[in-house]
Amino acid sequence: MTKNILAVNNISKNFGKFKAIDNVSFSLQKGDIYGLIGSNGAGKTTIMRLITQLSPLKVGTISLFDKSINQQALRHVGSVIETPAAFDKLTVKQNLKLIAIQRGINNQDKVKQIIKFVGLTKKVNTKAKNLSLGQKQRLGLAIAILPEPDLLILDEPINGLDPSGIIEFRSLLLKLNQEKQITILISSHILTELYQVSTRFGFIYNGRLIKEITKEELDKVNRSGLLVTVDNVAKAAQIIDTEFQNKFTVIDDQRLLIHSLDIDSSELNKHLVMNNVSVISMTKQERSLEDYYTNLIGGQENA
Amino acid sequence: MLNQLRTDFYRLSHTWGIYITFACTILYAAMIVINNVVGGIMVTGDSMAKLNSNDIWTLKNGLNAATLSSSLLVYLFIGIFVITIGYEFSQKTYKNTLVSGITRSQFIISKYLVMLINIFLLTLIYFITSIVSGLICNRSVGTSWSNLLSQTINNSIVIAFFISIVFGIAILVLLLTSSNVAGSIFIVVFPVIISVLNNIANWTWLKYIDFFSAAMKISLKLVTNGQLWNYVIVSFVVLLATIITSTIVIKNKEL
User: Fold this and answer.
1) Tell me: the pLDDT tens digits for A33-51?
2) Do A54 and B6 touch (CB under 8 A)?
3) Beta strands A208-214 and A225-230: pairing type?
4) What ipTM is given for this predicted complex?
5) Which chain B residues contact residue A87 at CB under 8 A?
6) Domains along chain A?
7) What number is the average pLDDT over the span B172-186?
8) Do B6 and A103 touch (CB under 8 A)?
C-alpha cells in the first residue's frame, strides 16, 4: 500500500480580497518527486508556506504522514522556502552545527558528511554572508536535509545556480530521493530541470491546481520517447517487453514508441538485431514540459 | 525547547556582540565605582547626593551606586535582544527554527528565557565587577560579606527580571511591526516615556509599570512588603499577557 506523506485537501487562502489559493487538493506518496509548476504569483510558494505553517491555514486541511499537521509532524520536514535562511555571521559549519543542536543530532560526523554531500567542503569556514547565491542554495539544502527529513520542500532551489551547479543539484536531489527515500515537493521556473527530476507534476494557475499528471502520462501525451522503425513490429514489441521492461505503444505495423528517453538505444539496437529484427531507424521524439505547460496555460487563458 | 535554548546559547557564544556587551558591562561597573559616580535615567539628585556625601565609598556604597546606575544597563543589553530574536526575523532564520518541532509558544518562551538568563548573568557580572573594582581600590566592605553577596544576588535577580519584562514586551512589538528596529527603539524609549509621564502626570498606577524604578526601589529596599507584592504581581501579569499575546500574534502572522 502506498503511504501518504502529504495530503492537501481543499485549501484556500485569501490576502484581503485577493484569492491566492483556491480550493487546492493534491497528495504525495512516498518516493514521489512532485513538481509544482506555475507562473510568478500563481500560488506555489503560498502552498509551501501553508504546508510548513509559515502562513496560517484557515480553509481546508493538510495532513502530514496521515496525521493532521502540527509542529511535531514538521520535525520530519526539511524546507527551503523563498530564499535559503542562515545566520550571516556564522560559518557554514557553525550554521549546520546550530541546526544539529536544534534538532537534537549528536553525531558530529553528520555535519561533515552533509557539507561534503552538498559540495561545500571548501567553504566550511566561510561565513554565510560571504557565500555566493549558489553556495547559499547549497547551504539551504544542507540545513534542510541534515535532520534526515521524510519530506523535503524546495521552493525554486535552482535559482542562482550556475550550469554545473544545476547538474550537481539535480543529481543531489535524485540521490536523496533514491538513496534516502526522501519524498520531495519542488517548484522551479526552469521546467527542463523540473522535468528531469520530477515523477509527478501539478500545474498551478491563478491559485488553482488545474492539472496533475505523472511523468509517464506526460511523456505519453507529449508522445515523447524513442520512435523505433523496424521490419517486424510484433517481434520487436516482444523483445522490448521481455528484455527492457519499458512501456511502449505500437503505432503501426512498422513503428513503435518507447515512452522513455532513458533507454539505452545502442543496447536496444543490439538486442533487436541479434533477434533478427531489422532496425530501420531510431529517433528521439521530444515535446517538452514547456510545450505542455504553454498549451495548458494557453487553454486556461482562452477559456 | 531545551534544544532551542542550547541552540541560542551556541549562537550567542559565536557572536561578537555578546562579548562586546560583556566588556561594556564590566567597564561601566568599574567606571562607576572607581570614579565614585552615579548615572542613570531614574536617578534623583537626592540619591546621588546621599552617595556622594561619603568621601570614601565602601564596597556596599559601590554596590548601591551600581544599583542606582543600573537603569542604563537596558541600553547596554539591547544587543541581547537583537541577537537572540532580532536576527531570527531580520535574517529569516525563523523559517528553520519553526519547522524544527517547537511550538510557537515554546519559541516565544525560549527566546524570553534566553534573554532573561543572559541579562541575569550580565547583571551579576556587573555587580561582581563593582565589588572587585572596590577591592582593587582597597575599600572596606561596609557591611558583612554575607550581606554584600546576598544583596548582589538579590539585586541581580530583581534587576534582571524587571529588565526582561521590557525585553518581553519588545518581542511583542517586534512581532506586531515585523521590525527589529521598532523592537529596539521600544526598549530605548520605554523607560524614558515612563519616566517623563511619571514626572508630568499624576497616575499612581504608573509606578507599577515603571519597571526600572521598581527594580531599583526593590533592590535598595525602598518599598514596603505590601507594595513589593503589588509590583511582583503586576510584573508577572504583564509578562504573562505579553507572552500569550506574542504567541497569538505569531500563530496568526504571515511569516
Assistant:
1) 999 998 888 899 999 999 9
2) no
3) unpaired
4) 0.84
5) 11, 87, 91, 93
6) 4-218 (3.40.50.300), 225-285 (3.30.70)
7) 93
8) no
